């Protein structure tokens, strides 16, 4: 990330010196503002979901979900703690249903849990699976297409499903190959 | 009506009733959990700021547009229709940015065109990779996530190319 940030920002700034130096500061500040807006939104999202998660945790729901997903998670992530297993399974379930807002706090909780145990391989796997998104129903795309006047907005569901399954499978296999060997 | 609209409220209801049955102190548990929101958001903000500043100057400088025109022949070679290329590039960085590109594609080519269908599939099947990296792992000490980043970008790219192929057949 260090390299990417340095490269993109320096090159962009250098280009702006020639084209539009007035826009440099404003575009960067606009970026910071967007970040703050999203942070505020996320705080509300976190508060709601972390609250509900705590309720789910204390009533034993998380444990139950984790039990169902145990086998596939073990296959992908190796041996992880019970708590991490719970968060991962709920993150996967939420992503599958296209509830990104739910998936994110679960993913963060899972990442934190894995981080504490220092399980770099499992963190990489979590990253790869979350970053290639396994979504069953691309609801936002369908509604956007319908709005743009499509006659059959849903005809992209199957192709999307195929594409997302391929990308997730590729990513999971890739992490297994690259990071799997370094496992303790 | 939309079934998906019912999923969340129904889940919430089930959860609350179930928790009540298990004699969980719902109010206390909720506030205990919600307490974690502020520190989480605080640890999130600096990374979001960095990413948005980065994408902000990159777009405003005209470099992202320049990059797109420079890459046009590459997209042609890979079988990606013109207009979809920018989406493939911006998707890993910005959800709102790619949403903007997607709606522009719809407006320019019509929602039922091949180009628009490609764009739809790519948009729906991929994720903002850098956003995930910033949000999920902002509070982690371990930072050896380069393999996952590289693998995710590569996998998204390959599936984007495949998406264009799939849309040709289906």
Give a nutshell description of this structure.
The complex is a heterodimer of chains A (184) and B (170). Chain A has 184 residues and is mainly alpha-helical.
Key attributes of the depicted protein:
heterodimer; A: about 180 residues; mainly alpha; 9 helices; globular; B: about 170 residues; about 0% strand
Molecular structure report:
The complex is a heterodimer of chains A (184) and B (170). Chain A is an all-alpha fold. Chain A has nine helices and no strands. The longest helix of chain A has 37 residues. The radius of gyration of chain A is 20 Å and the shape is globular. The two termini of chain A are 26 Å apart. The model of chain A has no long low-confidence stretch (mean pLDDT 83). Chain B has two domains: 35 residues, no CATH class; 126 residues, no CATH class. Chain B is built from nine helices and no strands. In chain B, helix 3 packs antiparallel against helix 8 and helix 7 runs antiparallel to helix 9. The two termini of chain B are 27 Å apart. The model of chain B has no long low-confidence stretch (mean pLDDT 85). The interface between A and B is large, with 97 and 90 residues.
Low-confidence stretches of chain B: none
Number of strands of chain A: 0
Number of helices of chain A: 9
Fraction of residues in β-strands of chain B:
under 5%
Anisotropy-based shape of chain B: globular
Helix content of chain B: over 70%
Let me know the average pLDDT of chain B.
85
The computed structural class of chain A is mainly alpha
How many domains of chain B?
2
Query: What is the number of E strands of chain B?
Result: 0
């Amino acid at each position: 990330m260090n390299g990417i940030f340095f490269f993109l920002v320096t090159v962009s700034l250098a280009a702006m010196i020639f084209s539009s130096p007035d826009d440099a500061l404003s575009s960067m500040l606009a970026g910071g503002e967007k970040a703050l807006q999203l942070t505020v939104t996320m705080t509300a999202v976190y508060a709601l979901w972390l609250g509900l998660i705590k309720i789910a945790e204390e009533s034993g729901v998380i444990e139950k979900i984790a039990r169902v997903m145990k086998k596939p998670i073990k296959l992908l992530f190796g041996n992880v703690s019970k708590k991490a297993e719970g968060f991962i399974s709920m993150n996967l379930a939420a992503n599958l249903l296209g509830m990104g807002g739910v998936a994110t706090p679960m993913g963060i909780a899972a990442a934190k849990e894995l981080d504490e145990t220092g399980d770099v391989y499992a963190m990489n796997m979590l990253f790869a699976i979350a970053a290639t998104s396994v979504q069953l129903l691309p609801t936002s795309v369908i509604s956007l297409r319908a709005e743009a006047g499509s006659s059959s907005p849903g005809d992209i569901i199957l192709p999307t499903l195929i594409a997302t399954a391929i990308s997730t499978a590729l990513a999971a296999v890739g992490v297994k190959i690259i990071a799997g060997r370094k496992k303790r | 009506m939309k079934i998906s609209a019912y999923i969340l409220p129904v889940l919430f209801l089930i959860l609350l009733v179930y928790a009540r049955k298990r004699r969980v102190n719902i109010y206390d548990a909720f506030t205990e959990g919600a307490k974690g929101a502020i520190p989480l958001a605080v640890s999130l903000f600096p990374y979001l700021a960095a990413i948005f500043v980065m994408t902000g100057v990159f777009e405003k400088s005209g470099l992202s547009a320049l990059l797109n025109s420079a890459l046009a022949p590459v997209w042609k070679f890979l079988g990606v229709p013109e207009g979809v290329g920018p989406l493939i590039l911006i998707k890993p960085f910005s959800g709102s940015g790619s949403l903007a590109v997607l709606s522009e594609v719809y407006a320019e080519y019509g929602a039922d065109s091949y180009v628009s269908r490609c764009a739809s599939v790519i948009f729906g099947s991929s994720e903002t990779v850098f956003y995930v990296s910033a949000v999920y792992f902002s509070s982690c000490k371990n930072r050896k996530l380069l393999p996952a980043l590289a693998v995710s970008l590569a996998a998204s790219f390959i599936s984007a190319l495949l998406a264009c192929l799939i849309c040709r057949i289906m």
